[in-house]
């Protein structure tokens, strides 16, 4: 049991005790289930414990169009469950009809993420939620107006009271409830997970794809690999890194440099998690690649190598003195076979994550 979990548990017990003394009813803690191999480096702020009532409210707010100007779009408009909470577009369209500047990211497994957006400018889910809600080119409505609208909608005052033991609705409560719901969006039942649990026998192609994914090439020792895990990590297939992945010699989007002000961060973006990657096309921060095949081709043959490019991508090759990975077609197909293993059908159809307003 981790120190973080103990802190959250003790805080929950403290809140229950205090509210019991005050005569208030407090919602039970929500149990977020995930496999041990995902690790316990999770991010839940001490002032926003995940509760059953908070998650229920957050789910409703996630699909609530009243949070947008004109009551026409919700968070769920650009984060569709059937697409692993992406939208299938190169760039999403905001309330004013304008295109966003970057591709919509998946919301799977955010419990392990501390810095959000492609450039990592938001520290925490609560902070992240404010941007799409209030941006004039996204949902286009101030939180103050959202509070006023929700107060007039039947059931919301009671739902907020159940979630936060308060007779009022506040701007902070809105973003906290949204964050609570989004932290429950855990994807951990793909064929790869079933393989790790000993419940699925991969094909020969899938097994070789796994091996290539996690292996660094060394032609001197006749070791073949694609070296994907340096950035995409272990079983979660996600590590909170920002990398320049060699898309352009002169990046038009400065990426993380806009946040840090450091020249070395030019063209660096958050490494995307690969869970459900087959369902989240198009790919990259600008949606330039329409298929996974194009993505694999990029890393195999087209990485632009310069001082800004991630060192994990420079001069990695399966050929002696090679300048690219040099994987043949059959090995690229094996990697794709593994990437398709990461699709979690249960996640993209889980009724606990679906639109509660749909019939």
Description:
- With 359 residues, this protein is mostly helical.
- It has two domains: 3-186, Cytochrome c-like domain (Cytochrome Bc1 Complex, Chain D, domain 2); 191-341, Cytochrome c-like domain (Cytochrome Bc1 Complex, Chain D, domain 2, Orthogonal Bundle), CATH 1.10.760.
- Helix content is 35%, strand content 2%.
- It contains 13 helices and four strands.
- It has a two-stranded antiparallel sheet.
- β1 (115-116) and β2 (122-123) form a beta hairpin.
- α2 crosses α7 (171-183), α9 (204-214) packs across α13 (329-341) and α12 (292-302) crosses α13.
- It is globular and about 70 Å long.
Task: Set out the fold topology.
Blueprint: H1 3-22, H2 52-62, H3 75-78, E1 115-116, E2 122-123, H4 125-134, H5 143-151, H6 156-164, H7 171-183, H8 191-196, H9 204-214, H10 229-232, E3 242-243, H11 257-260, E4 269-270, H12 292-302, H13 329-341
Antiparallel strand pairs: 1-2, 3-4
Instruction: Please give the CATH architecture of the largest domain.
Output: Orthogonal Bundle
Strands of the biggest beta sheet: in what spatial order? 1-2
H/E element sequence: HHHEEHHHHHHHEHEHH
> What is the 3D form?
globular
As a percent range, the share of helical residues equals 25-40%
Mean pLDDT: 93
Q: Looking at the chains present, what oligomeric state does this protein adopt?
A: single chain
User: Mind telling me the CATH class of the largest domain?
Assistant: Mainly Alpha
What is the fold-level CATH name, i.e. the topology of the largest domain? Cytochrome Bc1 Complex, Chain D, domain 2
Strand % is under 5%
Number of structural units classed as domains: 2
What is the β-strand count? 4
Q: Identify the CATH homologous superfamily of the largest domain.
A: Cytochrome c-like domain
Radius of gyration: 22 Å
Structural class by SSE content: mainly alpha
Poorly predicted ranges (pLDDT <50, ≥5 residues)?
1-11, 13-24
Characterize the largest beta sheet: strand count, sense, and whether it forms a barrel.
2 strands, antiparallel
Compute the number of helices: 13
| Spatial separation of the terminal alpha carbons | 40 Å
């Amino acid at each position: 049991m981790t120190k973080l979990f103990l802190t959250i548990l003790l805080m929950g017990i403290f809140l229950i005790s205090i509210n019991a003394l005050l005569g208030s009813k407090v919602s039970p803690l929500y149990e977020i289930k995930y496999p041990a191999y995902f690790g316990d480096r999770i991010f839940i702020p001490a002032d926003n414990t995940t509760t059953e009532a908070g998650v229920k409210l957050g789910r409703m707010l996630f699909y609530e169009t009243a949070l947008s100007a004109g009551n026409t779009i919700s968070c769920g408009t650009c984060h569709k469950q059937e697409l692993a909470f992406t939208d299938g577009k190169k760039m999403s369209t905001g309330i004013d009809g304008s295109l966003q500047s970057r591709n919509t990211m998946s919301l799977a497994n955010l419990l392990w993420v501390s810095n959000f957006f492609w450039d990592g400018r938001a520290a925490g889910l609560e902070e992240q939620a404010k941007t799409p809600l209030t941006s004039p080119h996204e949902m286009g409505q101030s939180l103050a107006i959202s509070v006023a609208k929700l107060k007039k909608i039947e059931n919301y005052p009671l739902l907020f009271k159940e979630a936060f033991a308060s007779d009022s609705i506040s701007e902070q409560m809105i973003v906290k409830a949204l964050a609570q719901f989004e932290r429950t969006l855990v994807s951990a039942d793909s064929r790869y997970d079933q393989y790790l649990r000993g419940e699925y026998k991969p094909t020969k192609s899938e097994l070789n794809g796994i091996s290539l994914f996690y292996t660094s090439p060394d032609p001197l020792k006749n070791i073949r690999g694609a070296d994907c895990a340096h950035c995409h990590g272990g079983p979660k297939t996600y590590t909170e890194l920002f990398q320049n992945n060699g898309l352009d010699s002169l990046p038009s989007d400065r990426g993380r440099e806009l946040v840090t002000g450091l020249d070395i961060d030019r063209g660096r973006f958050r490494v995307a998690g690969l869970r459900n990657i087959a369902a989240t096309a198009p790919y990259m921060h600008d949606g330039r690649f329409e298929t996974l095949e194009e993505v694999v081709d990029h890393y195999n043959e087209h990485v632009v190598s310069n001082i800004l490019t991630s060192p994990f991508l420079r001069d990695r090759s399966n050929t002696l003195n090679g300048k690219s990975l040099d994987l043949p077609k059959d090995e690229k197909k094996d990697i794709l076979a593994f990437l398709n293993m990461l699709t979690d059908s249960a996640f993209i159809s889980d009724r606990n994550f679906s639109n509660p307003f749909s019939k």
